[in-house]
Amino acid sequence: GAGSPHANDCPGTTSEQAGKSSSCAGCPNQKICASGATKAPDPAIAEIGEKLSTVKHKILVLSGKGGVGKSTFSAHLAHTLASDSTKEVALLDVDICGPSIPRIMGLEGEQVHQSGSGWSPVYVDDNLAVMSIGFLLSSPDDAVIWRGPKKNGMIKQFLRDVDWGDLDYLIVDTPPGTSDEHLSIVQYLSSTHVDGAVIITTPQEVSLQDVRKEIRFCQKVKLPIIGVVENMSGFVCPSCKNTSQIFPPTSGGAERMCADLDLPLLGKVPLDPRIARSCDEGKSFINEVPDSPAAKVYQSIVQSE
Amino acid sequence: MEANNDGSMSQVRHVVLVLSGKGGVGKSTITTELALALRHAGKKIGILDVDLCGPSIPRMLSIGRPDVHQCDSGWVPVYTDAAKTLALMSIGFLLEDPDEAVVWRGPKKTAMIGQFVSDVAWGELDVLLVDTPPGTSDEHLAVLENLKKHSRVDGAILVTTPQAVSTGDVRREITFCKKTGIRILGIVENMSGFVCPHCSECSNIFSKGGGEELAKLTGSIFLGAVPLDPLLSTSIEEGKDFIQSFPDSATFSAISSISQTLLESLQTA
What we know:
Chain A: It is found in: Cytoplasm; Nucleus. The structure holds 2 protein chains of 2 kinds. Chain A is an alpha/beta fold. Chain A has helices at about 30-35, 45-50, 70-80, 100-105, 150-160, 180-190, 205-220, 255-260, 275-280, 285-290, 295-305; strands at about 55-60, 90-95, 115, 120, 120-125, 130, 170-175, 195-200, 225-230, 235, 245, 265-270. Chain A folds into 2 domains: about 1-40, no CATH class; about 45-305, Rossmann fold. Chain A has 11 helices and 12 strands. Chain A is globular and about 65 Å long. Chain B has one domain (about 10-270): 3-Layer(aba) Sandwich (Rossmann fold), CATH 3.40.50.300. Chain B contains 9 helices and 12 strands. In chain B, strand 8, helix 5 and strand 9 form a beta-alpha-beta unit. Chain B starts with 11 loop residues before the first strand and ends with a helix. An 8-stranded mixed beta sheet of chain B has the order 5-6-2-7-1-8-9-12, with helices on both faces.
């Protein structure tokens, strides 16, 4: 009927269909898009392409579902890659509303500085740099209540205006969902080569349901998928050593989904209370408890990429 | 703020937002369990699921993908039972393909939510629970603006897990509430410890105490803690009524006590 909204994609403000597609009906920006005002390609895309042309590897960490361990994974991937002191590694946090990376990397309270060559990221080690909106907030209570366009502007700045230097690896941590942040990061990186995405999930169908959508998103925007990581995959009681499936894989977990969709399952990381503790304390779990089963799975995942 | 009693929300007595800021803490689970608990207490409940990217509630209530219809007063919500004690409206119902991603930018999400909130024929409800996605962005502003136009928003429940990484985001959500004038009805700490079913040892998998500390720090009420319970996770996965299946569990008594406190604060407002 006239009032029935169909869940089609926004064609994008710069597409041929902007303002003209059937899915544009009802969108407050329809007139602006249809007028052609938004069609000129954003010059930032070419600038970012130029700026990041020396970055050898770019990896996006995505999920669709919240709270599955994207930031935890991104942080530990960054730490592990940077343990080779000959490699330059950077971690970019584009979760504008819920920036967890500063805390997980032990950088709470740090601020960024601007210089002639742009913003300087915050360095954890000589070869490990981090950027997050968290560094632009003056208080832990500050809320970033921004609508889509403003979030997109921030992401553009992070990619174009940060003085990363020559990098071997740029890892991008994302918020849950399939929205502005995800479209923007893909759009702004469209003139560069992106190795692909690592998709994080937990075993339950409630997670996989959202993760399948993220996978569809990747396919739609032609983002290669490096593989899937299943977090919170069982819990071994430290006392009696029995395993409990706290987040049960009622529909076969990531294993079945990967088999169905022909995607590599990079690893299954068990629950370990020490992971949460390390993240809260800003330490690398892989350094703190290298012999734990979870740390070993992480190591093997990271090495295999 | 004057309510615009124009039909769709005029018989809804209380509106409660379920917020977090952090993803994956159990907003949808807690929304579902509170709805079931309040229904068991004899109330008529509605759930509005405005998580456009990841609508989880239909599965949690075993509702699947029904056809949704419109009547004169708007979209007819989907009822979980013939007695119409629990109603649900979710974007999930409008998707032709459940695996299809809703890849919308802010303005379109805002427009969709506007339609949702103003065009659902809820009828008579004691409490409308509004489940939200993580963050402090378009969806949250849209829900709030639209709800305020049509009804009073009694307040929000904030869900967190014990760790600092979670409470760190929830602090920002509390600021959002303060800035937008939403009363904070209280904080729920989810995933609060795991009791091993084999040996009863309690493991604090996601750390400990953060919810209570956050409540103290921000001057909010601590509504209670809900433990990690594989029986609850399985119930949610399979769309079963946990309250009916496990009435003697510690998890049930935690949820029940939270729902009681919530009802009391709504009624004394």
